[in-house]
């Protein structure tokens, strides 16, 4: 897939009469989410875009004549049934629904696209082994954890406070970034995959940098466009001022015109900044595409 994914024509296609709210489908309890749905151009907005506000939707673009599709689809269906509504498999016959295939820029089938909050999150083409599919799906669910509304009628589970975070939170209240970082790192030393601690540590490190940014950081960077450290500092200033598009654009432009170690460092910093945001944030999604174009 390449370029932006324009889903607006499919919204128009699904206008008059408006579709009913996403249903549980055959065999699902009232209000429950069916794990697998067949999607057409007329139901795309309801079953994919609207549904993706609740749970991730994995769009399986296939064709009846496609032999690899016959290998991949049954595995996806098995995993969807196991997921018990944590995500939905939306199956699209590309021959019967060419506008959906066109919207996703499908060049070959099978193509699988993860949608969350109405935006493409990740995709792949071709047959993948089941362990790789499980890992990919786990990554999707981790990326959107706590960021979607969940299945209809589902009560969010109140998570008990983790006492290990209290020291870090107290340090933050006191403006002690080093102490907060050490406390979060202590959690990760014993639990390396703790996503809450990982996210908190990234935030703390950013706040620590941003707290030392000089007032004229942006002016200095604009006057020295080839100074990597100046660009890093200016990007932090712009991000702290809630101007992520400017911050990302600055570093993407540096990647575009640089080479070697500096280019790698700029790309690495950009990826770190992306992780401060929701993976489905439109600015992040757009900036990831721009970065890919700058690299290639």
Automatic annotation (TrEMBL):
Top-level lineage group:
Bacteria
Residues of the region (Disordered) are 1-32
What residues does the Thioredoxin domain cover? 28-142
Write the record's keywords in alphabetical order, separated by commas.
Disulfide bond, Electron transport, Redox-active center, Transport
User: Which terms does the UniProt entry file under GO BP?
Assistant: response to stress
Q: Which GO terms describe its cellular component?
A: cytoplasm
Q: Which GO terms describe its molecular function?
A: protein-disulfide reductase activity
Q: Which Pfam family, just one, is annotated for this protein?
A: Thioredoxin
Keyword Isomerase listed: no
**What does the record give as the function of this protein?**
Participates in various redox reactions through the reversible oxidation of its active center dithiol to a disulfide and catalyzes dithiol-disulfide exchange reactions.
Q: Which protein family is it in?
A: Belongs to the thioredoxin family.
| Name recorded for this polypeptide | Thioredoxin domain-containing protein
The organism is Rhodococcus pyridinivorans KG-16
């Amino acid at each position: 897939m390449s370029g932006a994914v324009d889903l607006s024509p499919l919204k128009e296609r699904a206008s008059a009469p408006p579709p009913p709210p996403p249903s549980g489908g055959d065999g699902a309890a009232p209000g429950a989410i069916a794990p697998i749905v067949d999607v057409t151009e007329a139901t795309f907005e309801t079953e994919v875009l609207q549904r993706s506000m609740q749970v991730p939707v994995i769009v399986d673009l296939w064709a009846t004549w496609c032999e690899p599709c016959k290998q991949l689809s049954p595995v996806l269906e098995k995993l969807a049934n196991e997921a018990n509504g944590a995500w939905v498999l939306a199956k699209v016959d590309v021959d019967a629904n060419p506008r959906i295939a066109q919207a996703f820029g499908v060049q070959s089938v099978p193509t699988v696209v993860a949608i969350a909050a109405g935006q493409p999150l990740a995709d792949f083409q071709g047959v993948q082994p089941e362990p790789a599919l499980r890992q990919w799906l786990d990554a999707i669910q981790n990326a959107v954890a706590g960021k979607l509304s969940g299945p209809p009628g589902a009560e969010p589970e109140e998570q008990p406070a983790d006492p290990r975070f209290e020291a870090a939170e107290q340090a933050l209240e006191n403006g002690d970034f080093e102490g907060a970082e050490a406390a979060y790192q202590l959690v990760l030393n014993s639990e390396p995959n703790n996503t809450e601690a990982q996210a908190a540590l990234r935030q703390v490190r950013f706040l620590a940098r941003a707290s030392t940014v000089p007032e004229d950081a942006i002016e200095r960077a604009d006057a020295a466009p080839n100074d990597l450290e100046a660009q890093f500092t200016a990007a932090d200033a712009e991000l702290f001022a809630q101007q992520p598009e400017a911050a990302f654009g600055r570093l993407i432009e540096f990647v575009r015109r640089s080479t070697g170690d500096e280019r790698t460092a700029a790309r690495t910093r950009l990826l770190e900044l992306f992780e401060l945001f929701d993976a489905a944030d439109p600015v992040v999604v757009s900036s990831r595409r721009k970065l890919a174009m700058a690299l290639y």
